[in-house]
Design brief:
It is built from 18 helices and 14 strands. It has helices at about 10-20, 30-45, 45-55, 70-80, 80-100, 140-150, 170-180, 190-200, 215-225, 250-260, 275-290, 295-305, 315-325, 335-340, 355-360, 400-415, 420-425, 430-435; strands at about 5, 105-110, 115-120, 125-130, 155-160, 185, 210, 230, 240-245, 265-270, 305-310, 330, 350, 390-395. Strands 1-11-10-9-12-13 form a six-stranded parallel beta sheet, with helices on both faces. The chain has a five-stranded parallel beta sheet with strand order 6-5-4-7-8, sandwiched between helices. Helix 9 links the parallel strand 7 and strand 8.
């Protein structure tokens, strides 16, 4: 990995380079995605089935698009029992963590007859996009569905691309069953997002779409936002390790590579106060790359977005981490909890040398759907709040409104909204007439 002594110029260049990975930068795909979305919106199943034949090479129709109970049972029989037990343990951790996020409706009353509050209501339906084909991502299924289930969503729909044989990966399908999916459809890509957003004869629409996907899925979610809600427009994965001379270079190198292997656009950055650590980590990375299965992807992502940044002091390292606002941030320093208190921008924070990033991907419980491309400065991990909506509750008695009506009328008249003022005024016009 390249080692850079950080200064303002190199920091600016690195930040600009990282932002180029944003899905919004890939405008060359926007027209294609827009056409797919519009075709599904207008032609429904006809377009949906045609695009599935074109992109997934699978023949589906209205009788086969939805996964049956028999297919689910068959899939469960194909899953290694040991893996099944691992998924169940992971589910328990994820569920327990997200149950702590549950909000309650609340109401507050005053002696004058005022009642104010907030009513929490789960979304009625959510669509979960899960990448598919030959690959299986059961962790993605669990991380997206369990918070929705905990929030109380009644209808949880999964869409995932089928293989050429028209079947869904059995591990993915089993995870969906365990997590509480109510429906599973054999569709993927931008066409699946459009079907969830607008509905077809075979796929009823949903209120919100969550889950990761390729650039076509990301841009499709952007295109349908407003017709439905979405979680985010996710970019490539990223990790930043903030370390001092006390860190184990072999551990740090392994953790950097755990994210670099995702794809060629993944980012892996070490920010350290120690040049000795920087050099040793670079050597360890080179050695690991030669032995890992995704060597070509690792080499490409490290060449494009892999950096070891050496800074003069820990405060500068913390400032750099906050500016990059990484999806995953590991803190491996002499006093990691103290450093954690100074971190403002990160999707998930891993503290200490035994809190490796894959712990969060699979097992610990916090969600692994995290803000990317610097959006951790204003976005949060996926959670129960993403699957609820809040309604304000307002009740005023006549006595309470009478005390406030002149203030309200004055405010409305100041904005020249006389109908607003009149709406309050008419409730007391008889009393005003009596006073005259």
């Amino acid at each position: 990995m390249r080692i850079i002594r950080l200064d303002e110029t190199t920091k600016k260049n690195i930040l600009e380079g990282l932002l180029k990975r944003d899905p919004n930068q890939y405008s060359q795909y926007a027209d294609t995605v827009s056409q797919i979305v519009e075709q599904v919106k207008e032609k429904g199943d006809e377009a949906l089935f045609a695009y599935t034949r074109q992109f997934d090479h699978a023949q589906i129709d209205e009788s086969t698009i939805r996964v049956t109970e028999e297919e689910i049972e068959k899939a469960k029989q194909q899953v290694d029992p040991a893996l099944l037990r691992v998924m169940e343990r992971s589910m328990e951790n994820i569920r327990e963590y997200h149950q702590r996020q549950i909000r309650q409706s609340w109401f507050s009353s005053k002696p004058d007859g005022t009642i104010l509050g907030q009513k929490i209501t789960p979304l009625e339906s959510v669509g979960v996009y899960v990448p598919g084909g030959k690959a299986a991502y059961p962790s993605t299924v669990l991380m997206n569905m369990i918070p929705a289930k905990v929030a109380g969503v009644e209808r949880i729909v999964m869409v995932t691309p089928p293989g050429a044989d028209g079947n869904v990966n059995p591990v993915t399908l089993t995870a969906a069953c365990l997590a509480g999916a109510t429906e599973v459809y054999k569709i993927g890509g931008a066409q699946a997002v459009a079907a969830l957003a607008f509905g077809t004869c075979s796929v009823p629409r949903v209120n919100k779409i969550v889950g990761p996907g390729n650039i076509f899925v990301a841009l499709a979610k952007k295109a349908v936002y407003g017709h439905v809600s979405i979680d985010s427009i996710a970019g490539p994965s990223e990790i930043l390790v903030l370390a001092d001379e006390t860190a184990n270079p072999r551990y740090v190198a392994a953790d950097l590579l755990s994210q670099a292997e995702h794809d060629e656009l993944a980012s892996a950055i070490l920010v350290t106060t120690s040049m000795d650590l920087a050099k040793e980590v670079s050597l360890q990375v080179d050695q690991f790359v030669q032995t890992l299965s995704r060597k070509e992807i690792l080499e490409c992502s490290l060449e494009n977005y892999g950096y070891i940044l050496v800074v003069d002091c820990l405060e500068e390292a913390i400032q750099t981490a906050n500016e990059i606002a990484s999806e995953h941030l590991e803190i491996v320093t002499r006093q990691p909890f103290e450093v954690m208190t100074k971190i403002r921008n990160a999707g998930a924070i891993f503290i200490g040398e035994y809190s490796s990033e894959p712990l969060g991907d699979y097992f610990a419980g916090p969600n692994h759907v995290l803000p990317t491309n610097g959006t951790a400065k204003f976005f949060s991990p996926l959670g129960v709040d993403d699957f609820i909506k809040k309604s304000s509750i307002i009740y005023y008695s006549r006595e309470a409104l009478e005390q406030a009506h002149k203030d309200i009328e004055a405010f409305a008249n100041a904005e020249s909204l006389t109908a607003h003022a009149n709406s309050i005024h008419v409730r007391f016009e008889e009393k005003k007439a009596e006073e005259k």
